[in-house]
# Entry
Amino acid sequence: MELTREEELALKGEYGETLETAYRILVATGEATNAQKLIPIKWAHLSGVNYNTIGDAGEEFLAKLSQDAKVKVMTTVNPMGFDFDSVSKYNLSSEFITKQKSIADSYKKMGVIPSFSCIPYEIFDLPEKGTQVSFAESNAAIYANSIGHLKTNKESAFSALASALTGKSPYSDLRIDDTPNITIQMKVEQPDELVFGMLGYFAGKVGDNAVQISGVSDIDRRQCKALCGGMGTSGRCGKFVLGESTPNSEKIDFDKKEMQKVYDELNTAEKGDIITLGSPQLGLKEIADLSWLLKGKEFSKRCMVFCPRSVKEQARNLGYTNELERAGCEILSDCCTCLTPLVDKNEIDSVTTNSIKGAYYLNNSNGVGVNLKSLARIIAEETR
Amino acid sequence: MKVIVAGKASGKILKTSNPINFLGTVDKKTGKIHDSKHDLYDIPLKDKILVFPNGVGSSVGAYTIYSIKTNNSAPNAMICKKVDLTVASGCALANIPLVIATDQEYEKLHNGENLILDTYSGKL
# Structure
């Protein structure tokens, strides 16, 4: 990879340890993806916020880094482990709370917008078409490329952090060529968001950088987010294009058989002790839909609803949170179904959710069983 | 061989034909894989030359690589067939030498053998 003179100097440590580290990461990721050069990016979205995932080493690294590091471009961050507003209601160790606060403070000190959301594309205005960004959250990267007309690779926690600190990223892979080389032929009829999540999980496994998906004429916001979340969970694929297949691309069917295989892999319980909604976090429209679906109904078990803080505030002003709380929902901001310590296997055996991404992490990381159901079925079967 | 993170290292080869999901399956403290379905289940990665086809899974896996290095339970080097951004950036921050081997080089690496990796001389 060719570096400019300034970039060479930064890599050699002429501008301090922070930039030396950041350029070392950019050079490694650039070499790994055969990039020829670095290019400017306008927005970085970081993962690596939850103490559950980055641990003590991560917390200490960020505390040290934030002593002099400042982000150079707009930078937003993923959810953390819990919502500070309601943390006292849960059985969390004071160590977890202290360490989580330290991580959040380190990011703020570096000039990061404390968004704590995995759906930055729904709570911030998107820059113009074709803008290069650097998103580490997989569902957000896939959404940005596929729906938002932005350009990003599926960044890692450190490559996005290096982009935030330098305003640059290697020019490679999806930033240069995002043409799908495979078409997935969607054959399942009348798919709901759970089916789209399974389609995404399947596509992530078989796809390379980008996939074409044929047989989908109409997709709503909830289904689209489920597709992005599922795809980001299972593989390296960072973009989908909806439309009929090109004559020369390889074609693979996604029919009931393929869907059943995904379902059997991720559905690990017959029923759930609690319900979680939101992975990816719910946006305002989904909260509005949910409050409408719950009119006159009440959940028969605990239901945790995850959304960004800004969405929760808007929802409160519009009266939706009252309706959801009346129906028995616990509304949590700044965190998400994925990897939250609020779902603890010592207290809960299993969770019902409509999220494929949530199902994967609840089972593999939190160690609880997962009962998969669409939102429509959850409302029909789990309310009174 | 293509160098992703430069350095010198030696150790016993620990080779798997399965991809590794660092966030999902590697313990941040012990550096052992806790997924019982993986063929490296419960084997310490510490001080080994870890040879695997590629990394998979969450972008936060880069922090796991950094954590095992900090906790003194990391492999001395990694050799892959394909390198994803998570493994590349994790090794870069943790200063763990990382190379992409050609198919021919990769086939010659056998479990349990001693290996010296020197990216400066380009030798395996």
Notes: The helical segments of chain B are 22-25, 61-70, 85-94, 103-107. Residues 2-118 of chain B form a domain with the Glucose Oxidase; domain 1 fold (CATH 3.50.30.10). The radius of gyration of chain B is 13 Å. The CA atoms of residues 69 and 94 of chain B lie 6 Å apart.
